[in-house]
Amino acid sequence: MSDLSDLLKAPDASLETKDDFFAINELYMEKGWGDGLPLIPPTEARVAAMLEYCDRPWNEPVGKVAPRYGEATPLRLAANAVMAGCKPEYFPLIVLAVEVMCDEAFNLYGLQATTHPCAPLVIVNGPGVKELGMNSGHNAFGPGTHSNATIGRAIRLILLNVGGAIPGLGDMATFGGPNKYSYCVAENEAGNPWEPLHVERGFPREATCVTVVGAECPHNVNDHESISGVGILTTIAGTLISTGSNDIYYPDAMPLVVMGPEHAATVANDGISKKDAKKFIAEHSTIPLGTFSKENIERRFRTAFASVYKNAGMDAPVPMIHNPDNLLIAVIGGAGKHSAIIPTFGATKAVTRALKRKDGQYARGMKDMRRA
Amino acid sequence: MSELRKRGLVTAVICTDPFLKLGKAQSRVFGTPDLPLIVIPHPLGGISLEKVEGRAEVAIPEFVNLIKEHTK
How far apart are CA A207 and CA A120, in angstroms? Predict the structure, then answer.
């Protein structure tokens, strides 16, 4: 493993500036680096501290970040993690999240370059959530928690600075969204009456996992009246119905339903499994073809999906969820009678991976990921 | 498209003007900086089919020239 000072001797690996926070930030803005917010200067000492939590070669890419296909070396990732304000112990999760996002199934190129307002949503499960003090409860998607905020911001800085998702150049989002600043959350496993998301997706409960979803911002589901599981699920299904969702047009789309723990408890207490909840939501979130605009019916449904809709009547049901098994459900949040739906880019698959040590075993904690 | 060009096939990317910078950047990323980009007026979505045909009329002569140059 090369020493950091050696790696920094490579051309353009580092630059000398005046040792002044504001001057450094001004320079970064001039160069077009960053998310527009002040950045922590990635000094050699700070980057070195971050890299202490990386037991792999610091100059070997863990992936290539679209659309620039910039090499995601731990060194570059560490510099971005410092700039985002991360603590060094967060770094293993950031490296894992980047690896996961570079999985072909996720279609990072599409997500980054599209006009659609999607961003990689990072959902963390397992013991790493507690270890890093991540928020899975009240305001979990909102501000106020250092690990959620800075891990999510580090991901965004990597997408910008390594991936080249520069507005109007590599990121063609018509207007983007606040999800593109920081979008990282933990599942409330204690409040989840079913198996946690990572367990459902094939990992042991004791594994720390990252799931990425190519996601829009959350859209709220308010239901203060339903006292039955069917009632809650009916309201969720009704909120999913929308004629403007990308997910309609992608049969393999994997939209996400975030259930607040109180809603989840109401559903589970009625003996409804997660699988049955998905099935119910899918069956009750269809929309009559005639709800769509005439042009969409003629130019999209009757042509691109002619095998189903060529001669379909205006009352033919159009599913928002094509395959119930593709619907993701996570339990997130604190007290309150709210859930959320999170539509996706559509042409993307959610991907989950676990934090593993060099020897292939599941990491028991972030210390397992430290440099030997 | 870059892969096809590397294999010697006649290739071009047709894009609307706001996507020209992205197209140029991607051509460089994929190692084909000379990949022809045929630019048509924006938008392509949300217009009548007649206007879509109009966009094709802009692109076709450029594409024909491209084939001629390639087969010289």
Answer: 21
